[in-house]
Amino acid sequence: MQEMIGLAVFDVEQGKRVGKVLDVLLGSDWSITGIQLENRSLFHSSIKAVLWDDIVAYGEDAVMIRNQQAVCKWEAEHIQNTFLSGPGKLKDLSVLTEDGIRIGYVTDVYFEHELGNTITGIEISDGFFTDLMEGRKVLPFVPEMTRGENAIMVPRSSEQLLEKP
User: N or C: which end of the chain has fewer CB within 10 A?
Assistant: First the structure.
């Protein structure tokens, strides 16, 4: 998901740049609901967003949307989950097992665009030195994962599911 942040967003109909990706919006069902675009206004209670269904394609250089009408305004207080910013962000949340073991914190979220907008795993760090010595790990998505206010709760056996990216 981090690779999408900062990408230019273009409208396919006119080839016009409409902004760049500031954040990714997530649903409570672990799906990507849209992208948040940069907003040049300093005093705003709304954000510029594009729903996932209006994204035609994305690559390493740009996100392509249907047309400029796909850009809509959302009230910021109605955004529940994001990847990078705001009160509902996933990045840097602790990942805890149901029996109280902290297996790390979220550094990235993975999804396969060929499979749609469903999250397939979360990248987990266990700290700077562990990352240097062992590298980060990926926890494949399991339906029992829940996002709490201050942590992502995962089943007891999740530590055994960790794999190298």
Answer: C
